[in-house]
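re: that chain from earlier
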Amino acid sequence: MGILVDLPTSAIKDALNSDKEFRLSARYWYCDLRFGVGEDCYYMTIKDGEVSTFVKGSDGFDPYTINFSAPEDFWLETLEIKPKPFYHDWFAASMHHALDFGGDLESAYAYYYSIRRIHYCMAKCFNAQKIAA
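^ sequence. v structure.
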């Protein structure tokens, strides 16, 4: 069985940095995010509300402040254009599905609208990649 979810990191980074809602809600935010997608890990660094890096893979020493990890089948559901109930929001999904949402929750809650914009842009780019393939 092949990889089901391969996030287009460059497209997601560009989409977030050009998304006015994300830039406004994420201003002053410095954070390292880890996305565990099945066996793969993706790391996003946000500096003063701008995504400076978003990469797939790890050298084993990548720091992260907030973590979102789940099996690939969860990511396929949550990245749909119109996800099912409790897949539409990562906080709700962490209560009802196999999403591990952890780390510095105080920062996550303070910038939760920014996290929702990450989810939105991630789904938009993932689906554009599926359509193009």
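The radius of gyration is 14 Å.
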